[in-house]
Amino acid sequence: MNGEPTDVLVIGSGAAGLTAALALAQRKRVLVLAKGGLSEGATAWAQGGIAAVLEAGDTFENHVRDTMVAGAGLNDREVVEHVIAQAPASIDRLCELGVPFNRESGDLHLTREGGHSHRRIVHVNDATGWAVQEALLKAAEAHPNITLLPGQSCIDFITGHHQERFSGSGRVWGAYALDEATGKVAAHVARATVLATGGAGRVYLFSTAPRGATGDGIAMAWRAGARVSNMEMMQFHPTCLYNTQVKNFLITEAVRGEGGRLINPATGQRYMAQYDPERMELAPRDVVARANDDQIKRHGLDYVHLDISHQPPEFVRAHFPTIHEKLLGLGIDMTKEPIPVVPAQHYTCGGVCIDLAAKTDLPGLWAAGECTESGLHGANRLASNSLLECFVFGEAAARDILAGWDSLDAPPAVRPWDESRVTDSDEEVVIKQNWTEIRRFMWNYVGIVRTTKRLQRAAHRIETLGREIEDYYGSFRVTTDLIELRNLHQAADLIVQSALKRHESRGLHFTLDYPQTDPVARDTVLVP
């Protein structure tokens, strides 16, 4: 089955995808595909805020320096400068869309987070992402040139290989997607495609990422022939709630920014002075995550404590209403007692290589957001730079597509999806088993602290599972679970390949076999 051709296909309905769609829809017809619901991506989960230089005492250079320090020098300075210079304009556009940012005496209220030298985080209490998602979605739903199609699991890009007459071209003409409700696969054909599918956090056992963060776009782009970079740089958030009832609830960086202290529950002592005496709890995420991991392992703990109960109760409730309410429902009053927290995978800093115009290696394909490696984050993302990247590169993709529209060929006739040689699966347990196995060995072998031996063990398991998964994929009709398993496996493979190539410790990649940092920072680029 082939869908009606559209001008531009956008895969992903989060901040990056909807920003691109709204900019493109001024002149073109846009189809937005979303896996699951339209608001189920990572954008709605972003508690912290958006970093932008808006205060008199702050400068772009300060923000650039903080970003480069957090990124351990692996960032592309030109990209960092470009994105940070665009930040105030991005905030203005969001205000125009009606995002109700916190204000103080009429001015935007700015908070501070780990790694930032100044207050520069624009926020909507502790639920910024949800407010941004709501505003973007409302604007997209109201736009006559935008069609939003939820419940679509993309399988692979349509390339020259899928034309009715085989051409061998790597040009992207849209994507094949499974309709989750009907079980039918359609070819969604477009002149230009924007990839905005988010990260690969669910490759790990403990992650703050939403259920659908299975590395789909990264895996699809790799299979189509695009380079990926720095996949070993997986950010672990230091403070995920430890609770058996609730999985993956993030305790925002801003709790530490507003005075939260990390305490060993066994000794009752603050411990960040042992790891970063100057910045303490406001050190970058990689430093704090390793400190928490070290305390947990060294003292045989299940968790550490994050305590902000020394602040006035009304201050805590006003700054963190969402977190306060959620914790109260679990029997924890953060105004009176500490919060039990553990590190968890939080952000994919590597991804599909793009340039300043959001172009990938593949003609016809642009990309933005967490599925990309733009050069902004380097070896560790600075807090609240992620939504900013989505806005800047979503806009960049739209600008570049519109500027070069006349040079984009009309799509050719495309072969429909062929499932004549497959049957319905009678072995769904295989998917569940493989999914669980990948997430567990990735957490144990490719986690916060790594060794070459552990990475090699992971590589061996990935190779064995790969044969099983491809055999299964070739025999049965696709389901969302099977599509995600295939992509999860591919993302795990790229992470391990990248980690084995980096013979140093830098930022988020810390290995006991190579504890030193090389004098020159180099990207780990994988070529299909």
Distance between the termini: 29 Å
Structural class: alpha/beta
Proportion of beta-strand residues: 15-25%
Q: What is the oligomer described by this structure?
A: single chain
Radius of gyration: 22 Å
Got a strand count?
20
| General shape | globular
Low-confidence stretches: none
- What can be said about the biggest beta sheet? 7 strands, mixed
Mean pLDDT: 93
Percentage of residues assigned to helices: 25-40%
- The number of helical elements comes to 13
Word description of this protein:
There is one protein chain. The chain is α/β, with parallel strands linked by helices and 528 residues long. The protein is built from 13 helices and 20 strands. It has helices at residues 15-24, 60-70, 77-96, 128-142, 216-224, 254-257, 285-299, 313-319, 321-329, 386-403, 428-445, 452-475, 480-501, and strands at residues 6-11, 30-33, 50-51, 103-104, 107-108, 110-111, 121-122, 146-149, 152-157, 174-179, 185-195, 228-229, 234-241, 261-263, 304-307, 339-348, 351-353, 365-367, 372-373, 525-526. Strands 1, 2, 8, 9, 10, 11 and 18 form a 7-stranded mixed beta sheet that branches. Strands 19-17-12-20 form a 4-stranded mixed beta sheet, covered by helices on one side. α12 runs antiparallel to α13. The longest helix is centred in the last third of the chain and has 24 residues, at 452-475.
